[in-house]
Every structure is written in structure tokens, then in C-alpha cells.
């Protein structure tokens, strides 16, 4: 029998902050973007802040209205990365089958660990207490026979809790929950289900898979299987995931680059390629770099640490381009030959940040990015070029991009 756990660290960002500064313990605190900039919203909160009614994605001023003494801290991605690695080191003691789902969540297939570590509940409990004792962080664990139900279980009781959803109780527990509590149900599927009169997971389970497939395509069939505990998706292996140190795309041009406009067109095209690969790996960049060589082979390079991790092509390209024009005078007297855009300090993508941190403009561009990815995954990268890349008919071979993962 398959035994799958989903382990989710509770209030991960806030917990790491408290761990590093125990005087914060028991106080209402939030992790938030820069209040001066547009990123001034709540990214994460401590239990105390949660109890007061403070919510992720609220603006800082809204949160402060609820609690005057609220402690506001900036995110510290280096620390999150460090703690994330320590969490996974603990999980890997129990099984090599650990598939991460963001920095603070993962699935574990412990089917082969039962003899060694006890019943599924006992294994979950050992993981829970080991993380708590060694890292001072609490986790919620869902124990089940499918990935879908395990994930559902870890959401049901928190913090510091275990929920078992097995073959004898999944109908009582899972089927009464709203349909969109199930993973993989996004806004569009939710809307479609609502139009079909489907509001709970049980409704999905009891609708004909033929109708679901007709209305929702392949997803419909999948949702039917998920809701009935029939998904057979495997837990991936942790070691199979390699996070590169950096990703870069470079281009050497046959003609000299003598205008800012030409440089811009190339940089945006490179930024697009870098961002595509970031998203393909499910990564976000914490730093953006650009490297240019002029035709005397003099090199200029600049790296920018960014406060909000991103996989957005526009943001990456803009940052790189601004660095170039601020520091190099591009002209006939100083023509450029090679440009490379790179991203570094990469972390696994975190949906909270991706979806909520940005204002609606960036949300919109995230949607555009996803659509671009879908088309490119199907037809190949070079099928699409954004308008900016087409502006200059430059003899640069953008289809033969120089891909580097280090
Ligand atoms: Mg979490």
C-alpha cells in the first residue's frame, strides 16, 4: 500500500524570524515588503498576528490598523533557504523519496519505511517532533494513500498537527470540503465547476468522469480520480532535483551594437529566455546580472541583488538594461558585441510571493508568462517573440541562444 505524507512548515517565514531572534516569540509579527515601495503587503505572519485577523496580502497599513504594536520585518531569503535545506535533510532520513513543493512543503513516500519506523502515523509523528526539537519549527503533516489527500490533510489541522486521511475515512473528511481546497483547482476550474453546480470535493467524486472530461478536458478526468483517491502520481526523488547556481543566456552579434535601442531589444530577448528557463525549473531569482563585452573585448559586468525573488522576464530585462545604460555609453565609438543576462542565487518558486506580492500589473504579466510557457513547451521556444524583440532587425541569432546552467 502507498503511504504518502505531505509535510508543511507552519508560518515558515515568521517561524524562521522567531528562531533567529527568540525575543520575537509570542508577539504579533509580519514579514512584509518594503513599506516605501509597492511591495508593501503582508507576505507571512506569526500565529499571534493571525489570531488578530491579519491576513497575507493585506497592505501593511491595513495590518497596522488591526494591531498598533505589530512588528514588521523584511524577508530574509538567505535564511529561508538555509532552513529549507535543514528541513529537507531531516525528511531525507526517513525516505529518499522527497519531492519539494516550494521551500517549506513537500511530499514523502514512506511506503518502504514502515518496517523501520512504524505505522504511517508514527512516522509522521517522528518527523513532526524531530523538526520541532532540532529546528524549533512546527509542521503540519497529512498522512494518506495519495498525494492529493496527503496535501489536503496537512491543510486541515495546524500548527503542529497530524491528520490521517485513509481509505476508511476519506469520504467523511475530504468529500465535505469545498472543491477548491483540492490542489490543482485554480480559479478557472473553480468557476467552471461552480457553473456545473459542483461545490464540494464529494460532488466532483460523484459526477460522471465523462461529463467532467467534456467540460474540463483532461483536467476533468484527473480531478475525478483525485477526488476518488485514485490518483497514482508518484512522489519524485529529491536527488533528482538540481538547483543550478545561476542561469544565463548570452548572444554574440555579427554587427556591432551601437544604439541603446538595439541593446534593449537584445537584452529583452535574453531576459525572456532566462525567465522561461527559471519558470520551467520552478525557480525564482534573487539576483540579476548583466555582462557586456565591447569590440575591444573589454568586459563590463554588474550584479543586482533584488529584494523580491522573481521569474518575470520584464523585471529581469529592465534591471539588466538599466544597469547597462547607466554604466556604458553605447555609441559608434563604443560598440558592444556580446551581451549576457544572468540570474543567480536561485530558490525554489514560492507561490505566495509569485501570486500575491506584486500589484495587479505584475499579476497580469505572470498570467502572460504562464501562457507563453504553455505555448513554448508545446511548440518550442522560438515560436514566440515579444514585440520588443522584433523591433530591431538585428543580425543576432536569438534562436541559437547560449544556455548555461551552473
Ligand atoms: Mg507552510
CATH fold naming of the largest domain? Dna Ligase, domain 1
Count of folded domains: 3
Q: What's the pLDDT, averaged over the residues? A: 84
* The named CATH superfamily of the largest domain: DNA polymerase, Y-family, little finger domain
CATH class of the largest domain: Alpha Beta
Unique bound compounds: magnesium ion
Distance between the termini: 39 Å
Q: What is the number of helical segments per DSSP (H or I, 4+ residues)? A: 17
Rg (C-alpha, Å): 24 Å
What's the short story on this structure?
The protein contains 17 helices and 13 strands. It has 406 residues and is of the alpha+beta class.
Task: Give the secondary structure arrangement, pairings included.
Elements lengths: L3 E6 L2 H9 L8 E4 L9 E4 L1 H5 L8 H7 L4 E3 L3 H15 L6 E3 L4 E5 L4 H4 L2 H16 L3 E6 L2 H10 L4 E5 L4 H4 L13 H9 L5 H5 L3 H8 L1 H10 L18 E12 L2 H22 L1 E12 L4 E12 L2 H15 L8 E13 L2 H7 L2 H20 L7 H4 L11 E4 L1
Parallel strand pairs: 2-4, 7-8
Antiparallel strand pairs: 1-6, 1-7, 2-3, 5-6, 9-12, 9-13, 10-11, 10-12
The structure holds magnesium ion (MG).
